[in-house]
Amino acid sequence: MTAKSLVEIVFHGRGGQGAVTAANLLVAAAFKDGNKGVQAFPVFGAERRGAPIRAFARISDSEIHLRSEIYEPDIVIVQDESIIELVDILKGLKKDGTILINTRKKPKDFIFSKTFRVATVDATSIALKHDILVGGIPVVNTPILGAIPKILNKVTLKSVQSVVQSKWKGEQGILNVKATQDAYDTTEVNK
Amino acid sequence: MNKYQVVTTISYPKPGANGKTGNWRIFKPILDKQKCVKCLRCWIFCPETAIKRNKDDTIDIDYDYCKGCGICAKECTVKAITMEREGKQQ
Amino acid sequence: MTMMIDTGNYIAAKAAIMARPAVVAAYPITPQTTVVEGIAKYVDTGEYKGEYICVESEHSAMSACIGASAAGVRTFTATSSHGLLLMHEMLHWAALARMPIVMCNINRVVGPGWNIWADQNDSISQRDTGWIQIYCSSNQEIFDTVIQSFKIAEHEKIILPVMINYDAFVLSHTSMPADIPTQKEIDDFLPAYKPHWKLDVNNPITFGNIIAPMSYYKVRKAMQDAQEHAKTIIPKITKEWEQTFKRNHGGLFEEYKTEDAEFILISSGALGAESKAAIDELQKKGLKVGLARLRVFRPFPTEEIIRLSKKAHLIVIDRNISIGNEGAMFNEIKAALYQKSDAKVIGYIAGLGGTDVTYKDIEKMCEKAVRGKTKTNEWYGLRED
Q: pTM of whole model > 0.90?
């Protein structure tokens, strides 16, 4: 668990998977947990469905003055495992950094788990199980959010669920909250 | 690398100026060559020129740059092109 | 009060409707679009009850605002880059006709080459139109400044339009928390607009009639006087805001750790916020560099700059360039000091075309300047790739 005053997070996903929404929801939850400085933003420019994209989040005890992109993240979140072959997800990652991956595999299956802290969660299966789909495609966002409190003590599962509940009303909200719980319970971390 | 003595905003057409955009695909067009009647509608409509026209008017799909938009499958009158979820075969 | 964690644009939209303009007329352009979209959403939910005019261009957007303002109501619009440039004729019109219109301009590159990222050349190129220009560095500041700007624009000694500028994407599309006062608190701070004059069939007046050379000369002088007044009225209004809401982003400048500074960095917009992180690092290293974040570019804070120059040498970072000369702020700061100060002024161009400028970059620029190694008006971070 990291006790740093500023935590910088990079989300890797594909356009349309909701990396930007995930970053926004994460910082809203972090704010609820008393982190006074929060910030979420996309890589600026045209977003294209399916193209590898990045989103950023900063969480801090105090007001954040930084406005630049994140080059040396503390946490890297991979929403789509296939991105690993296309993008250098380890670029700039701090030595004590963490990688959270949406995958069926386990942390030890990734070669970089020897040097980095790796967490895995099968967000796609969880989304399918709880029937959270948009246009027939599983929304991996919510399960990913549920996994984050496992690797970052600045955010609680309770706040994540409260933010998720206010984002999706009614039945959808209940399903999404269940998905975050499932993800939290099944996330595996190597150290 | 400049052709001119000043830096310009001119750019030149070339395939894949934005990298191999094929990796953006979620759905992949699959061609059934038996069904193809060589009408070339897919070749006309493809917005990415990812349909390659051969000398005998048969076609091939350039998966390096096909973004999987599905227009070819939609336009094909004999349903020789179908869209499949990417990574299904694995 | 409630906290809203959202992008600069959605927070600007919220502020705009809370100021209760009777008319909003705007045309969407990246990266301003979500301001327009945000206000449209409030029309849909019924939270905004004013007239929302969809127009076919930015020239028409500003024209519609001018028409509405002439009819005596509060008006708001937003634009960016080429949209601002298409308004150019009507920007002059609005200022000369003394219309207290408030506009957000999201600072974006002017093309070609086509580029939608942050750069101040759009607004800097409109500096002679008579508009007051304020540059923001956070979402909270955007909210507060939108409300304050109506008060500034409508002040009896000013009566000029105000342009609120903030960086494309870096602020427009970045979610950060902002404290949103209640509608009652806003209404108390910014009462309903009472026009000083208006188009009225019972008391006919004409806007934009032909006037004689001397009359026009006087109109220009009056505009200049109004801008001079704004130099004292803007800080007064931000102080008044502070009394109620306990925060002040600065009047004409926001000073940060300038006590004992031997060098003062002057930057603006998002770079101005990033600069604070650089100043923290520089002071940790024992370098006496402070920050004065320039908020108001028109009126140009000449007296404040002279005051700063009595304390320290100045380092200026411009995210703009007056092609054929130098960075606009560098240029004007030096002019302000003519025969008034012996301070050194060191100028950098940085971040054009939306190139990212990190606090580490700003640190490097300042260190080099402090060591006397900077060439005149140096372009920072140009690479050959």
A: yes
